[in-house]
Write a structure and sequence with these properties.
9% strand, globular, Membrane-bound Lytic Murein Transglycosylase D, Chain A, mainly alpha, Lysozyme, single chain, two-stranded antiparallel sheet
Length: 499
């Protein structure tokens, strides 16, 4: 029976969607040190910026100097590159259970952490003082390499409320299906993917299952990023080779930078002092403890009675999306600063009674929008949601102009910080009316049963069809008697709305 269950687990894992001169010339130089490698570095660096900026916005950190560090683009400190032999020796001295090789790609990522993004590393080092002991205890309890504690650094920049563009959530970045498979509770009130403790236990079980497939931690790390199905495809395309660097070019592009980033982050956290990088103190309690509660409890009740800042309660309990602990049917955990545990026990009855008719009246349940999701955006009334795929030459300004929206709205709707977008990226846009600013004025002999659309440069039939619910490219082609799929800028198309 156990053997059959194991086979089922492995089969399920494979279906998980995607959610990685003697000195300078002696190291392996791979193709990614040129254009593709620079693209990976740029994308990784921008993602790190976005994750850390989101952390500050969500947790309400109000230290102006620290916030300016995250938002400033002028804090890059160019340092003299160290000889490769120094990096090689330092990685070897770490005596890691997981292989940490050195090559030109790893060198580029080390440069990101120790030079270009050193300010962000300072912040993550500060966060690590709080989160790493949690990861280390759970990894050690399950006899897994302690070096795996770096995975949340790569995945979320230690941001428990992080959400990726594909929906991976939390400090370990679980997709919904994977989180449920590993027994994480996800509902309107709770998302345990955001709970550092619960998600760490789930991550450990996931990593152990992956190791049972590959028996190689480097491949496990790659599979954690892109899913075992993609790693298996890469192995087949590489002729059965099972070394990460042998299958490197057959992996998804993002995963090619994942293992080098893992190695580089381990290096940066071990040798930050040698690069004059010091941790930024975080406003998180030095010691905490958990207490089990029964019944519906709002974090503001705890805050008001015990005089604990809401920001602190939210930081310690990020799994409660609406600030409510819905412990009606079973006990649930509440993490508090250690010094608040005794007062909570002594004043528990008073806490539960504090304004309970206000907080839990059906008409007055408080749901702070700022914490009901990882980010919140305003959607104009009467607008329709469309998906736009970025084309070569697109920039946010032109996309915004084409759809009659503001650049700031594009950034908000798609959780974009800065202006970097990539070809093929899908953007969510809310447009007024059927197609926003793309509707053409109807000709004099227009049929009132149709909507008229003026073709722009780069438009395709399938792209235009996305603007109209229930309309396909074939519908547009048939309505306009088009002999083929070719469109000309300025051409007017008629479209008959469904329903």
């Amino acid at each position: 029976m156990r053997k059959i269950s194991f086979v089922i687990i492995i089969a399920t894992l494979l279906a998980i969607p995607t959610r990685l001169k003697a000195e300078r010339d002696s190291i392996p130089v791979l193709r990614d040190t040129t254009l593709e490698g620079l693209g990976l570095i740029s994308q990784f660096s921008a993602n790190l910026d976005s994750l850390l900026n989101l952390w500050y916005v969500q947790t309400g950190q109000d230290t102006a100097n620290m916030l300016s560090v995250v938002e400033s683009d002028s804090t890059v400190i160019e340092t003299t590159p160290l000889p490769d032999s120094v990096y090689i020796q330092r990685l070897a001295d770490m005596n890691s259970f997981i292989d940490l090789p050195y090559n030109s790609i790893v060198r580029n990522f080390i440069n990101v952490y120790t030079n270009k993004q050193r300010d962000k590393v300072q912040i993550m080092l500060g966060l690590a003082d709080f989160y790493f002991p949690i990861f280390e205890e759970i990894l050690d309890r399950n006899s897994l390499p302690i070096e795996l504690r770096i995975l949340p650094v790569i995945e979320s920049a230690l941001n428990p409320r992080a959400v990726s563009r594909v929906g991976a959530t939390g400090i370990w970045q679980f997709m919904y299906g994977t989180g449920r498979m590993y027994d994480l509770t996800i509902n309107s009130y709770i998302d345990e993917r955001r709970d550092p403790i619960a998600s760490s236990h789930a991550a450990v079980r996931f990593l152990k299952d992956l190791y049972s497939i590959y028996g190689d931690w480097t491949l496990v790390i790659a599979a954690y990023n892109c899913g075992p199905g993609n790693v298996n495809k890469a192995i087949r395309r590489a002729g059965g080779k099972r070394s990460y660097w042998d299958i490197y070019y057959f992996l998804p592009r993002e995963t090619r930078g994942y293992v080098p980033a893992f190695i580089a982050a381990n290096y940066a956290f071990a040798y930050h002092s040698e690069h004059s990088i010091t941790p930024t103190p975080m406003k998180l309690p030095a010691t905490t403890d958990t207490i089990m509660v029964s019944g519906m409890l709002h974090l503001e009740q705890v805050s008001h009675v015990l005089n604990v800042p809401m920001k602190t309660l939210r930081d310690l309990n990020p799994q409660y999306k609406a600030d409510i602990i819905p412990a009606k049917k079973k006990q649930m955990t509440l993490r508090l600063p250690f010094e608040a545990i005794g007062p909570f026990i002594d004043q528990q009855q008073e806490i539960f009674a504090y304004k309970d008719t206000i907080y839990f009246s059906p008409k007055n349940v408080i749901h702070p929008s700022r914490y009901t999701a990882s980010y919140h955006h305003y959607v104009p009334a009467g607008s329709n949601r469309i998906t736009y795929r970025v084309k070569e030459g697109d920039v946010l300004g032109t996309i915004a102009e084409q759809h009659g929206v503001r650049v700031s709205q594009l950034r908000s709707w798609n959780n974009i910080r800065g202006s970097m977008i990539r070809v093929g990226q899908k953007l969510t846009i809310y447009v007024k009316g059927p197609i926003g600013g793309q509707m053409s004025s109807a000709p004099k002999d227009a049929d009132p049963n149709y909507i008229y659309y003026k073709v722009r440069r780069g438009d395709t039939l399938s792209g235009i069809a996305q603007h109209y619910p229930g309309i396909s490219a074939s519908d547009i082609k048939r309505a306009n008697n088009l002999p083929n799929d070719r469109l000309m800028p300025g051409q007017t198309l008629k479209i008959k709305p469904k329903g």
